[in-house]
Amino acid sequence: MNINKTRKIYKDKKSIFSNNHSPLALFKTWYSEAEKKVTEPNAFSLSTTYRNKPSSRMMLLKSFSNTFTFYTNNNSRKGKDIDSNKFASILFWWKEMQRQVRIEGYLKQLSESTVKKYFYSRPRESQIGALSSNQSSSLSSYNELVNEFNRNNIIYKNKKIPFPQNWTGFQLKPSLIEFWQGGKNRLHQRIEYKRKDKKWEIRILAP
Ligand SMILES: Cc1cc2nc3c(=O)[nH]c(=O)nc-3n(C[C@H](O)[C@H](O)[C@H](O)COP(=O)(O)O)c2cc1C
Question: pTM of this prediction?
C-alpha cells in the first residue's frame, strides 16, 4: 500500500527558542498545555535494548519532576532489557499540538514501598489484573488470563490483594531532552538540552 500522499500541513507556531526555562520547566509547561488538548498526554513510547537490539512499547507516565516515573512488571521483556542495560529513551508525541519530546537517560528502580503505595492506590480490578498477568509470558489462550482474573476475584473477595511479585516501577533521570515543534514548510523548531557538568547545554537543531 502506497501511503506517500498522506501529508499533514503543519501551521507555524510561536518560537520555542525564546524561553529561559530549564528543560524540566519547559516539559512541565508543554505537559500542562497537552493536558488541555491531548486525550492521553501521559502516554509515551519507552525504548530499551538487549544486546544492541532495541524494542519499544507504549507506557503511561505516572509522575514527573526531575525524573519520569512509570510502573511495570520486571518479568516482562522490557524488565529483562532494563536488567541488562539501564539506559533508555522515552518519547511523547502530542499530535494535536504538533509536538514531540524525546528524553534519554538512566533508569533507577523505585523502592518496594513506593511501588506498593502506588499499587494499592489503583482500583481493585487493576490490582487483580496485575496479579493475574505474568506480563509478556505465553498464554495457552486468552481465556487462561480471564479465568485467572475471575479466580483471583473470588479468592480475594473482601481481602487485600497480594502484591504481585515482579511488579515494579522505574524513574528515568534525563541526560538529554529534545523539544520539537512542527512548523510550516517543514521548518520545524528543535531545541536540545544535554546534561554536561551539572548544567544543561543547549543547541538548536536543523529539522
Ligand atoms: C497507551 C498504552 C499504555 C500502556 N501503559 C503501560 C504501563 O504503564 N505499564 C506497562 O507495563 N505496560 C503498559 N502498556 C502495555 C505495553 O505497551 C506492553 O504491551 C507491555 O508492557 C509489555 O511490553 P514488553 O513485553 O515489551 O515488556 C501500555 C500500552 C498502551 C497502548
Answer: 0.94
